[in-house]
């Protein structure tokens, strides 16, 4: 069950909202109902794989609590409020939490590599033999952040297991983010959440916006992108025009698919009284790769910044430590998506570009904005090729076509997909390349002054745009094939 499925839109969400808002505001039943609905949501989509998130829940909460009990018996001369170091019990807990992630995500991928000395049991393992639990990377990172923040605070951020379960399971973010830390919504879980009409209206508007991005733009751009990347298996049929068209289509697909999910998650959270952090801020308007990573998958970038880059020294211990920490962060960012060659090449390209910007000072440049935006966008589009193709040979064939042609329209595999609907989707999606960099598309349409706030929100515009957009989008949902979110695979 996904946010864009008829089952969710016409059954699960209406029932969950109606029961939730029928329960008295001050009643604990609200949290209990939301937790029950979230467990059902995950079980509906993942079945027995729910055992993975249950394991992570128990091990992370229990490990944080045990680490606190041990820490109480350890003498410390640190002043009150000083961040604590990660203790051995906490380190053990972190390793235990990652067991499902490693077992289900990385061991099958590792088995596909020809590594000398690899166990025969692994080399005979089918990479598809173990179904990857839905959202395993996301709920694992939620649990990791809870344990690390608890260790730094010298105590669990909460001693209420139901509150922690709700944090980990709450359905808007459990499958594909954004990565929300307990410290960001812990107080909201225990507070009396009064949802005003304005908050509900904003939530519905934000959800509709994300649904439209997914169904109307991402899925239709995906038709063009899939045709091109599937055609890469036969490089003789690849044309330069088709390669560029497919690469741009995939850049639009992955952005509108993932940011659409984040918009829907933020909107859903608002309907239940929660405020989730922003995850995208017009990344295709970036003036540098450094700027791109301040705008793309923001919560993942902050996770690695706060838990890897800064603890390693960041930019405080000289350039070599800084560059080493940066390379490690992007190695982990690549591996977060998977231990496949395409992800590693994609991460390597971005890390090389970031290092180049730091060494040359390009990231601090203020002039030639239009030129820098164009070059950054070209780099990002080209770098998406191995991320989607995954195989080195296919990536090289596509890059070769993008550089050397032939430049004709004779490749039917791609151009047959250019129907009026897909062309409109790509034109609308391409507006993300040229829009003002300081505002998101949502802010431009609805006048939102700051992400997540209700100030300067154009309610009259929402009253007109939302019903029309929702009607068109729902009709597409009912008459189109099932299309899961791209980041469900992670």
Structure description:
The chain is mainly α. The protein has 2 domains: 27-191, no CATH class; 199-489, no CATH class. Helices cover 66% and strands 0% of the residues. It is built from 21 helices and no strands. The protein has helices at residues 6-22, 29-46, 50-72, 88-97, 99-110, 120-123, 136-153, 161-169, 182-190, 197-231, 240-271, 289-295, 298-309, 319-337, 341-360, 369-389, 392-404, 412-415, 420-434, 441-446, 459-479. Helix 8 crosses helix 9, helix 10 (197-231) crosses helix 19 (420-434) and helix 15 packs antiparallel against helix 16. The longest helix is centred in the middle third of the chain and has 35 residues, at 197-231. It is globular. The two termini are 16 Å apart. 41% of the residues are buried.
Topology, element by element:
Layout: H1 6-22, H2 29-46, H3 50-72, H4 88-97, H5 99-110, H6 120-123, H7 136-153, H8 161-169, H9 182-190, H10 197-231, H11 240-271, H12 289-295, H13 298-309, H14 319-337, H15 341-360, H16 369-389, H17 392-404, H18 412-415, H19 420-434, H20 441-446, H21 459-479
């Amino acid at each position: 069950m996904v946010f864009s499925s008829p089952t969710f839109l016409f059954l699960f969400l209406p029932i969950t909202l109606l029961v939730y808002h029928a329960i008295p505001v001050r009643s604990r039943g609200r949290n209990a109902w939301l937790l029950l609905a979230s467990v059902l949501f995950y079980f509906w989509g993942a079945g027995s794989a729910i055992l993975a998130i249950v394991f992570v829940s128990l091990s992370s909460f229990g490990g944080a609590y045990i680490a606190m009990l041990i820490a109480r018996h350890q003498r410390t001369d640190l002043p009150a409020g000083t961040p604590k170091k990660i203790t051995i019990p906490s380190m053990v807990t972190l390793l235990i939490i990652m067991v499902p992630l490693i077992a289900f995500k990385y061991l099958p991928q590792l088995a596909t590599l020809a590594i000398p000395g690899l166990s025969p049991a692994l080399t005979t393992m089918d990479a598809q033999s173990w179904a990857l639990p839905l959202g395993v990377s996301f709920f694992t990172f939620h649990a990791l952040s809870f344990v690390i923040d608890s260790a730094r605070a010298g105590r669990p951020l909460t001693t209420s297991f139901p509150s922690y379960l709700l944090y980990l399971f709450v359905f808007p973010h459990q499958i594909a983010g954004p990565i929300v830390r307990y410290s960001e919504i812990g107080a909201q879980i225990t507070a009396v959440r009064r949802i005003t009409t304005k908050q509900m209206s904003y939530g519905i508007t934000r959800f509709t916006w994300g649904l439209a991005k997914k169904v109307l733009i991402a899925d239709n751009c995906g038709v063009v992108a899939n045709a091109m990347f599937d055609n890469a298996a036969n490089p003789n049929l690849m044309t330069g025009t088709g390669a560029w068209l497919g690469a741009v289509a995939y850049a639009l697909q992955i952005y509108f698919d993932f940011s659409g999910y984040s918009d829907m998650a933020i909107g859903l959270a608002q309907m239940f009284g929660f405020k989730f952090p922003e995850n995208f801020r017009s990344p295709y308007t970036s003036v540098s790769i450094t700027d791109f990573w301040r705008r793309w998958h923001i919560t993942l970038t902050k996770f690695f910044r706060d838990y890897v880059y800064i603890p390693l020294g960041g930019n405080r211990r000289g350039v070599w430590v800084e560059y080493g920490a940066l390379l490690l962060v992007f190695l982990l960012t690549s591996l977060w998506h998977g231990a496949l060659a395409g992800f590693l090449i994609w991460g390597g390209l971005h890390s090389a570009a970031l290092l180049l910007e730091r060494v040359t000072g390009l990231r601090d440049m203020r002039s030639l904005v239009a030129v820098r935006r164009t070059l950054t966008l070209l780099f990002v589009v080209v770098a998406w090729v191995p991320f989607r193709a995954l195989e080195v040979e296919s990536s090289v064939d596509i890059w070769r076509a993008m550089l050397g042609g032939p430049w004709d329209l004779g490749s039917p595999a791609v151009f047959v997909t250019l129907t009026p609907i897909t062309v409109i989707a790509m034109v609308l999606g391409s507006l993300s390349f040229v829009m003002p960099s300081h505002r998101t598309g949502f802010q431009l349409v609805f006048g939102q002054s700051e992400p997540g706030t209700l100030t300067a929100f154009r309610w009259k515009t929402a009253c007109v745009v939302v019903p029309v957009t929702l009607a068109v989008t729902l009709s597409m949902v009912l008459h189109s094939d099932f299309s899961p979110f791209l980041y469900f695979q992670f």
